[in-house]
Amino acid sequence: MIEITNVQKGFPGNSRAIEDLSLTIPDGKIVGFLGPNGAGKSTTIKMMTGILPIDKGSITLNGIPIDKNSIEAKKTFGYVPDQPDMFLRLKGIEYLNFIGDIYNVPQTIRQERIDTLTKQFQIHTSLQDYIQTYSHGMRQKIIVTGVLLHDPSIWILDEPLTGLDPKSAYTLKDMMRQHADKGNTVFFSSHGLEVVEQLCDMVAIINKGKLLFYGDMKQLHEEYQTDQSLEAVFLELTNDE
Amino acid sequence: MMNKTWLLVKIILKMQYSKAGANHSQIWLLVPIILFSIPFLYLYITITNATVSALYQTLQSVGQESVILGLLFIGLHTILFIMSLVTILNAFFFTEDIKSFIPFPFQPYQLILGKSANPFIYLYITSGFLFIPWFYAYGNVSEAPIHYYLQGVPIFLLVPMVPFTLAAIILMVAMRFINISKNKDRSKVITGILTLAFIIFINVIVRLNTDSQAMLQRLTYLLKEKDGLLIKITNYYPPAFLQTKALTDASTWEGFIYFLMTVVLAVGCFMLFLWIGQRFYIKGMLGSGGVGRKLTLPKKKSAKNVKKQAVWLSYIKTELRIIFRTPTFLMQCVIQSLFGPVFLLIIFIMDSGTQGLATLMNNFSEKQSILVLFLASVVLIGSNATAISSVSRDGKNWFVQFYFPLSMKQILLYKISTAWIINLITITLLLIVGIGLLQLPLTYSLIWLLLMLVANWFTSMLGTYLDFIQPKLNWTDEQEVFKSRLIGLTAICITFGIFGALVLILWNTSILSFILTVFSLLLGLIIAIITIGILFRLKLRQTNSL
Ligand SMILES: Nc1ncnc2c1ncn2[C@@H]1O[C@H](COP(=O)(O)OP(=O)(O)OP(=O)(O)O)[C@@H](O)[C@H]1O
Ligand SMILES: [Mg+2]
C-alpha cells in the first residue's frame, strides 16, 4: 500500500512539476501510471523512493513515511529506475550479490532465485560480464532481477517494459500479475497503453503535474462513454489545445 | 549494521577501481614512472635521514629535540587537511554515484563511511610517504625504545583522522547552507571556489604567523623550557602536540597517557563527523533540485536564438559552454588552473614582496630570465586539464560525432582550439601580473606573450593527442575523466622533458644573443608542433584503416 498525500514538487525553472498530488495505491492491485513526456511520472516515483526530497505533503509505503523513516520504508520496496545505467563498473553477478547482501537474502534462496530469474530473462550467460557491456534491455533485466531477488512487497517500476524483448516483457508482466495476486502492491509507469489496458487493475493519468484520472477500467469507461479505448481517453484527457 | 557498512565500502571501492572498460595498455606508462622514482626515493630517504639527524644533534643539546616530531606532525596535519578538503569535495559532492545507493536502506552515516574509503586511501599513501621515513629516522637517531615503534604504528593510523574529519565537517555544513540557493550546479561551484580560497587563506595565516624576526626574539626564552619550541609551534593545534608527546615520551607512563588521549581525540572526532554527516550529508548532497537544469527560452527571443553560425565557431562555443556549465569541468579545467598562478603569486608576495622577482631578474641576464620564465610558464600551461580531457569529456557521446558531417581532423582541431582558448585565461592573468605587479618591461612581456601563444598551441595539441590515443569514454560520472589517469602527468613530463632540455642547451650556449635565443625557442616550438601534427596524422590513418 502506497499513500501519496497532497504532494508538491518544484524545480528551479519549473516550480510546479507536481501539484497537489494525492493517490492511494492499494494492496493486491497493479496500478499503471500514465502521462505524456514530462508529465511528472518519474518525479513522483523518485519522491516515492526517496531520491528526490518532497517539497510539501507526504508519502508512506506500507504506512511508513519515506522522508521520516527512510531506512524502514526503503526495506519495503524494490525500484527499477527509468535509466538503468547504474553500477556499470560491476559485473552482473557482483551487482546481484551486492543487492542480496544489502537485503540479507540467505545464500540458498539467493542462489536459487538468481538461477531461475536470470534463466527466465536469458541473461545467465552474461553474469560474469561488466554491466557496462550490457545492452539497454539487459541492464533493465539485471535490475529487475535485483528487485525480485529480495522480494519486497511493493514494486515501483519506472517504465520497466521499455526496451525489453517480447518474451521478457511477457515474463515480467506475468510476474507482476502473480505478485499482485499474492496481495502485494505493484506501481509502474508506462507509455504502452495496450499493456496498461490489458494488465492494470487501475490507472492513474497525470499531465503537467496534475492528476487527471484515477480509477479502474470500469470507472474509466463509465466516465468517458462506454466503448472508448484507453487510447482515445488518454488523448482526450491530455489534449492541451 | 557494521557488515552492511563494510559491504558498501567494498562495493564503492570495487566500482572505483573496477577494470570495466579499462585499457590495459595504460600500464606501460607506469614503467618509466616507477623507474624514474627509484633514485628519487633513495635520494629522498637519504635527505630525510640527514636532516633529522642534523636537527637532532643541534636541538638535543638544548633539550628541544621534540620539536622535530612536532614539525612533522604539524606539517602532516596541514597537508592532510588541505588534501582532505579537495578529495572530500570531489568524493562527497562532485561524484554523484551515491545517487544509485539512495533507494537502498542505508543510513546516511553508512553512505558517508563508504564514500570516505577512497579519500582515506589517498591520505594514508601521502601520510605514509611523509611519516614513515621521518619517523624511522628520528627513532634511529634518538635510539628510541620499543614503545616508540609500538605506539608509532597506531599513531600513524590515527593521523589522518583529525584533519579529515575537520575538513569533512566544514564542507558538509557549508554545503548544507550554500544549497539554499536551490541551484545545485551553482552551489557546487561556489563551494569549490570557497574551498580553494580557504586553502589560500590558511596559507596566508600560516605565513603571517611564522614571522621569523619575532620568532628569534622569543627563541631564547622558549629554549629555557623543556619542549618550549614544541609548545610554541603546536600552540593552536593540540592534536599535533599530543601525538608528538606520545612518541617522544613513549617509554614513560606520561607518554602512554598522551597516547591514549590521541586515540580518544581521533575517535571522538570521527564520531562527531559521523553524527554530523548523518544529519547534514544527504540533505546537502541532494539539494532541493536535481542535476539537470531547465532552460526556458523567452518566446520573443527565439528568433534571435536561431542563428546560423560557422561550424567551427559553433563547435568551439559548444565545447566552451559544456565546460562552463558542468561544475566538475569548470572546476578542473578553469578554476583550478587559475588557482595555480594565484597561489604562487600570494606566496611570492608574502615571502619577498614584489622586489623578489626583480632581484631574481637582476641576478640573471635578460636571456637567462626569459628562459626561466618560459619554462615555468610552459609547464604551468601544460598542466591545464582542458587539453588532456578533450576527447574524454564527451564520454559516451563521443560516438555521436561520427554521425556529424565533419572529418575527425576538423573535430580534433576544434577541440585543440578550445583548450587553447581556455589557456588564454591563464596567460592573460600572468600577463597582468607581470606587467602590472612586477613591472616587467613591455617589449619583454610581448616577447613572452608571443612565445606563450605558440607554446599554448603545443601543449593543447599534446594533451589532445594523448587523450585521443587513449580516451576514457566509459564514465558515468564526470570526475572519472580526471581521476586515476596518468595522462596529466605524462603530458607534463613530456613538456618538461622537451623544453627543459632545450632550455638547458640554450642556457649553456653563450654565443647566442637574446633575440637568437627567442628565435631558437620559437623554432623548437614549431618543430614540436609539426611533430605532433605528424603523430596525429599517423594515428588518424591507422584508425581509418580499421
Ligand atoms: N532534475 C530536474 N531539474 C529540473 N526539472 C526537472 C528535473 N527532473 C524533472 N524535471 C521537470 O519535471 C517535469 C516532470 O518530469 P518527469 O521526469 O517526472 O517526467 P515523466 O513523466 O517521467 O516523463 P517521461 O515520460 O518523458 O519519462 C518536467 O517538466 C521536467 O522538465
Ligand atoms: Mg520518466
TrEMBL record, chain A:
SMART domains documented for this protein: AAA
Gene3D superfamilies assigned to the protein according to its UniProt record, in alphabetical order: P-loop containing nucleotide triphosphate hydrolases
GO molecular function, one term: ATP hydrolysis activity
Keywords: ATP-binding, Nucleotide-binding, Transport
One Pfam family in the UniProt entry: ABC_tran
Domain ABC transporter: from-to ranges: 2-233
Protein name (database record): ABC transporter ATP-binding protein
Species of origin: Virgibacillus salarius
